[in-house]
Amino acid sequence: MKLICETCTINRAISGGKRVFLKTILAIGKGSERKADETKIMLITSGNKTGIKYSVLKNIAKIFTRFLDEGKATISFITPEHDVQIKSDKIQLTAFLKVVKLVLVGGPVQESPLSANLFSATPQPPQLRLPCLTIGKKKTSILDSPSVLATKSVITNRKDYPTKGFSRMLVSLQISDLKLARFDSQILLLQKLRSLNLSKNCLRNLPRALGQLRLSELDLSSNSLVDSSWEWLLEPNIQSTLQNLNISQNGLSFLPMNVIHARALVTLTADNNHIRKLPFALWTLNRLRVLSLARNQIDAIPETFRRMRLERLDLSENALHEKGATVPDLRMEGTTETSEQNRQPSSLFELAARTVIRKKLPYAMPGLIPFTVQETLRRTPLCGCGQPCFDSKVFQRAKVIVLNCSCTVLNANHHLYADSVFCSEKCSRKV
Question: Where is the segment annotated Disordered (predicted)?
Fold first, then answer.
């Protein structure tokens, strides 16, 4: 049995020294093909491919499992005087230590928790067959495989797709041009994964559990996510880590509203879609620096884009033609007695949101106010003066605006028209 993990070996005979965790393969088995040879644990790192062998029987002083629920354990050997600290997946580490326990007690594993007492079981006849760690002075293929400790994997051919799952050490994974129609749930087990590329496939939906990964880069371009729910963007892990998102060429008719929850987003690419309008709340992505929306059907952008600090905005090949400009009626609605009578009553969330604004309560950080009220405030369009407009009409292509952007890419004879709302007649006269 082998365990892919990170280890730090501490020599108790030597004081001091740096404690660095290295990518490691821990394997337990017979030391050689001889029947009389005892069971050993072999530790192999990228810097020591020949490995270190530790005897198991009568050579383990103690196994520390207090933090096993966090995927951490320590094996203290008698000879040599090494403490091997292990960090790995909790389930795999538990299974590995159960095998070690079985070797130590010489019988089947009990159903009681591992951390209770590794040495308390009554000795029974051995019922475990372990493989040899060496065959004719050569390591077996399970230990010599170059992909076991690999942190990056690129799969562009079906024959290269792993049949026994992905290495848990993967940091970067690319699965492209395979026409995958369903998301592989094995990807959800890769807790160290930071970059995932699923471009040029046929994916129609993604599981919400994807948001539990701490991805910093995600490429979903050239798929079929037009009817996707995008609920995975509601998970806290991916909201706090995702910095680069590519959803180009997915047939999208609108930019997914849940994108506004990815508060760590720096680069957003949504080229080659059918997007016509953008959400007003996009301005709340205060870390966003690069926004690419080329080759869509956008005819105007929200006026709230003035509040963004973009370094690059690409709106080339969109519908920002000057001849298509409208002349909206900017007379304020709701000033007459009739319109006041026909107005729909405000929802409880809207009333709460209005109170937050009136009392000038802080609401930017999660948890300060109820989530539904915070969402109402985030999604509400803002007037040019900064006042939220809960029930105002949106005037399309109401004005031409200039953005605070270092580089704006437009076609010739195109202008940046803005969709606007107005909190009062005074603001509407400023157009």
Answer: 326-345
